[in-house]
Design a protein that fits this description.
Elements: H1 4-8, H2 22-73, H3 80-85, E1 122-129, E2 135-144, E3 153-162
Antiparallel strand pairs: 1-2, 2-3
Length: 165
Amino acid sequence: MVSSEMTNAAPVSGSRGRGSTFIEVMIMLMVLTCLVIVFSGSVLMAKRSSKINGQYAQASSLCQHKIDQLRALGYGRLTYSELSDAEVIDATPASQPYGFINDTYIEGTTTPDPNIPLVSPQTSITIAATADPDVSVATVKITWIPAPSRQRNSLQRIVYIANVE
């Protein structure tokens, strides 16, 4: 007597088995490798963009901080001695454009602040008179060199300070 399982079984030699062939596995690995390469490239680009955006945000914050300090001093105190005494600018240079590099260091030390990611910042404030004798214009500029690309980036803000007395 022949078993029913044996009679219903298809011959193995002429049919395709359930497994994948070597060529199918190799094609699948090539496609997977291409996807991994494309994905890793986009991750590296996103990381670089994130760093550049962080540096720009930091420069913008530093710029706004200086503008707020200038506004707090007011129109009548926009002189070298007043700006220096209020620690808005550094002692050198004594002529325009003034610098304020000390803001990138921990207060009272010469150690760079780890919270400020700018590399080699060059900062300046220029104050000029306008056609209106009761208004001065201040330009705050920050230029930095991002570590990966070594090309200069800069941010400049202009603020008008009026004599409100």
